[in-house]
């Protein structure tokens, strides 16, 4: 999850003057621009009360010699890759009573240039929360918050890797992987650990990369809103707390035809804590429906898993395995009789 800042609205440096705003009668704004021969020479002084207006085709000496200072707005201070300031403060905050680590942990998530994203240090996290207004955050809880933050981002990337392993080569190949349900998909892809974020078995295409991301906690996704509505209608089955955060991750997907950008939507849910008090989190990661392909990928993965379980795919697999085992036993018995 990222941390984002916003400055207060700028105040105008000069208030608008009140009273009669009409230009003086001698101001050339009242009449057509005079001919070049009728204008005053540059060395002539401006009479008192005259309009300071200079026609557009007469450049002002001040404007030609003094460069316009560059604008220093909020957007110019934000990194477009993650909407965070370029200068992440890693200095001790005022009134801070406990030292916090300054080192940053490197993730397993590759950037567009091939390097790895780095997570904020505990000190940077604390400064970010102070800047967002969370002044009551206990200092001794920051390191745990950073650990949870990093763990959730690694989990989100593992989920994205699962989608990319299925559909990087297209819908047809993705259907072949998903046809036997979620429980057999990793076996089809040759993945032992579904949370492995570093293994990529496709040798002829590069692995996915996280180009940029943005947090949108105040903009709920349509799916989360539908789930909240279902929880209100059927509380026994769908009741759940709304997600506490939402991110959009923009991923580079490569295939034999080249590379393209795919947007993923992530909803972060908090579940009931473990009996030991440990927090539980759920991530809902899926491609955004920015076009027919994103919708098709979601339908293929969800529909094949539902059909596999509803049609008794597990039972069919068990029966097929038993039939193969019996056939091997019968062949072994037949061979033994031949030798006797």
TrEMBL record:
Gene Ontology molecular function: any one: metal ion binding
Bias type Pro residues, positions: 12-27
EC number(s) from the headed UniProt entry: 4.4.1.17
Chief place where the protein resides: mitochondrion
Reactions accelerated catalytically: holo-[cytochrome c] = apo-[cytochrome c] + heme b
Coiled-coil parts of chain: none
Assigned GO CC terms: mitochondrial inner membrane
Entry function: Lyase that catalyzes the covalent linking of the heme group to the cytochrome C apoprotein to produce the mature functional cytochrome.
Designated name of the protein: Holocytochrome c-type synthase
């Amino acid at each position: 999850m990222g941390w984002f800042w916003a400055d207060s609205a700028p105040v105008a440096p000069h208030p608008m003057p009140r009273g009669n705003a009409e230009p003086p009668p001698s101001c050339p704004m009242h009449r057509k621009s005079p001919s070049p021969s009728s204008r005053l020479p540059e060395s002539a002084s401006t009479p008192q009360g005259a309009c300071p207006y200079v026609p557009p085709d007469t450049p002002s000496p001040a404007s030609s010699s003094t460069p316009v200072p560059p604008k220093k707005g909020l957007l110019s201070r934000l990194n477009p890759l993650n909407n965070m300031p370029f200068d992440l403060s890693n200095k001790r905050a005022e009134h801070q009573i406990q030292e916090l680590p300054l080192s940053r942990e490197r993730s397993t998530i590759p950037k567009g240039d091939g390097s790895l994203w780095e997570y904020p240090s505990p000190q940077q996290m604390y400064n970010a929360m102070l800047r967002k207004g969370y002044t009551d955050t206990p200092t001794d809880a920051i390191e745990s918050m950073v650990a949870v933050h990093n763990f959730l981002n690694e989990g989100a990337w593992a989920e994205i890797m699962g989608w990319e392993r299925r559909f990087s080569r297209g819908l047809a190949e993705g259907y072949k992987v998903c046809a036997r349900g979620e429980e057999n998909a990793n076996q089809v892809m040759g993945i032992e650990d579904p949370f492995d974020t570093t293994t990529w078995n496709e040798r002829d295409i590069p692995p996915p990369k996280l180009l940029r991301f943005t947090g949108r906690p105040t903009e709920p996704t349509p799916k989360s809103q539908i789930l909240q509505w279902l929880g209100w209608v059927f509380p026994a089955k769908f009741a759940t707390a709304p997600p506490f955060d939402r991110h959009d991750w923009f991923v580079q997907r490569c295939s034999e035809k080249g590379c393209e950008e795919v947007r993923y939507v992530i909803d972060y849910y908090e579940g009931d804590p473990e009996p030991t008090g440990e927090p539980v989190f759920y991530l809902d990661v899926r491609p955004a429906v920015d076009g027919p392909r994103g919708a098709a990928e979601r339908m293929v993965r969800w529909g094949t898993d539902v059909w596999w379980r509803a049609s008794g795919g597990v039972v069919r697999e068990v029966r097929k395995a038993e039939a193969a085992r019996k056939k091997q036993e019968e062949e072994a018995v037949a061979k033994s009789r031949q030798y006797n």
